[in-house]
Design brief:
This protein has 263 residues and is mainly alpha-helical. It is built from twelve helices and four strands; from the N terminus they run αααααααααββααβαβ. The protein has a two-stranded antiparallel sheet. A two-stranded parallel ribbon has the order 3-4. α3 packs antiparallel against α9 and α6 packs parallel to α9.
Length: 263
């Protein structure tokens, strides 16, 4: 920033302020923005990382797990979120919003396991259980809280990473992947850090398997020479190469893979 001339700095500030105002004037709810696939929260997260200030009037004693989650891809636990909600419900809206979005993130990564998790608590039929819309409700509460402070510059400079949490909430964990002539669904990591997240990001962004083209070409070449294929892979990571082969060759394929690192 120091290398930018005063005039350029002023113009950039003006553009930034205008864009910031435009964001808060958007009529779409944040849930709709997340579902649209447009990386608006990714951009805000990147900007906030550059503008963050070390000194803040906001409570930071409970901040550490919310920062570490982007370094080690370990989820923020429910009790850590509850501690933040107890400590900062009024004093620090961005901390409260971070806790609410982290809770939503924890819930959405397990929703696919059951049609309605409330059904597990009783024998009452699922259709008589409360609607499982906790993720939407938590996100709506976080949005409403921050909109009360709309336009405040502190929401971009705060040490609390709620824009990154919103961005991660948009990272789908189930992707429809297309191959040459087939398609398949696969689970990827619902975060964006380390090799797990980088590979998952690429699959999310392209709807293509991360599998090397060299591997695909070699399998295609072998498939032209034999009716039955047997593949063995050591270290498949998230398994996209084998899933690609299964989708491409169907019953012609017999495959085994061994992953020594628990994923």
């Amino acid at each position: 920033a120091e290398s930018v001339s005063g005039g350029s700095r002023g113009m950039l500030t003006e553009i930034m302020e205008e864009t910031w105002k435009w964001f808060w004037d958007l009529p779409q709810p944040w849930q709709e923005i997340l579902e649209s696939g447009w990386p608006l929260f990714s951009i805000l997260a990147a900007v906030a990382e550059r503008l963050r200030v070390p000194n803040s009037s906001c409570e930071t004693s409970l901040l550490e797990p919310f920062v570490e989650t982007f370094d080690n891809a370990i989820a923020v636990s429910t009790h850590q979120c509850a501690a933040v909600l107890e400590a900062s419900l009024v004093a620090c809206p961005e901390a409260t919003a971070s806790a609410l979005v982290a809770l939503a993130d924890n819930l959405r990564t397990t929703m696919w396991q059951q049609p309605n998790r409330y059904y597990l608590f009783t024998s009452t039929l699922p259709e008589r259980q409360p609607k499982e819309d906790d993720v939407d409700a938590l996100l709506t509460r976080a949005e409403g809280l921050l909109r009360e402070h709309r336009g405040a510059w502190r929401l971009l400079t705060s040490p609390w990473p709620f824009w990154r949490l919103l961005d991660r909430l948009a990272a789908k964990e189930v992707v429809n992947v297309t191959s040459d002539s087939s398609w398949f669904w696969m689970y990827v990591f619902p975060h964006r850090v380390r090799s797990d997240g980088l590979i998952s990001n690429r699959i999310r962004g392209t709807s293509q398997a991360y599998c090397l083209q060299l591997f695909q070409d070699e399998v295609q070449r072998l498939a032209q020479r034999t009716r039955r294929l047997r593949l063995v892979e050591a270290g498949p990571h998230i398994g996209d190469c084998m899933l690609w082969a299964a989708a491409e060759f169907g019953s012609r394929l017999s495959a085994s893979c061994v992953e020594p690192v628990a994923q």
